[in-house]
Amino acid sequence: MTKRVMPNSAGDKELRAVQQLPKTLAVDNPGEGLHGCWKSEKGQVTIGKDPVTARLSYTEPVGEERVHGWLDPVAGEESLWHGTLVLLKAGEGPWYGPSFGPPPEVVGDIKVRLLKGDKPGIETQIRMQDEEDWSELTKFEQEVGAEEKPMPTPDLSNLLPMEARSETRDT
């Protein structure tokens, strides 16, 4: 790395890295505290960074299907995220936009709050699409070793087969 000599107030010269990033860019992401597998008496959920979009993603298995939602921070609130929920069939990946076909039907909303304290925890509330009231709070504890489990990478191969990709490159 190339060094640049910068004079300081005492007249001495100080060596500084030319490509050094300002410290103000190192912003903590409060959503990282949500990453992991969480369990409660009602079941298990997974929250983590989506491998395609890097968005905060919520997943809860429901039989052969699963509930999925993108979580966004709530403005003016500390440690609170909100998202819309969709029901995905087994083997079906999240909807990333119009190139992935029509959007799935929204089945509800979710609020997730990160609990501060000695033991990591979250609280969730869900409101189904046809209901006006939010469910009671459900408290989750983080599973031991859950932070080591990565979010599954969706299979995107059926969206644009390899033959179609090679034809696009040839033209």
Question: Would you kindly provide a brief summary of this structure?
Answer:
This protein has 171 residues and is mainly β. The chain has one domain.
Strand order of the largest sheet: 3-4-5-6-7-8-9-10
Number of strands: 10
Q: Ends: how far apart?
A: 41 Å
From the spread of the alpha carbons, the general shape counts as globular
Going by helix content, strand content and strand pairing, the class is mainly beta
Mean pLDDT, all residues: 78
The parts where pLDDT drops under 50 for at least 5 residues are: 16-27, 164-169
Q: Could you tell me the radius of gyration in angstroms?
A: 22 Å
Number of helices: 1
Q: What is the multimeric organization of the chains shown? A: single chain
Main pleated sheet: 8 strands, antiparallel, barrel
Strand share of the residues? 35-45%
- Overall domain count: 1
Any overview of this molecule?
- The radius of gyration is 22 Å and the shape is globular.
- It has one domain.
- It has an eight-stranded antiparallel barrel.
- β4 and β5 form a beta hairpin.
- The chain is mainly beta and 171 residues long.
- The two termini are 41 Å apart.
Topology diagram in text:
Blueprint: E1 3-7, E2 13-17, E3 36-40, E4 43-49, E5 56-62, E6 65-73, E7 80-88, E8 106-115, E9 121-128, E10 138-142, H1 162-170
Antiparallel strand pairs: 1-2, 3-4, 3-10, 4-5, 5-6, 6-7, 7-8, 8-9, 9-10
Task: Using brief descriptors, characterize the structure shown.
1 helix, 171 residues, single chain, 5% helix, mainly beta, 41% strand
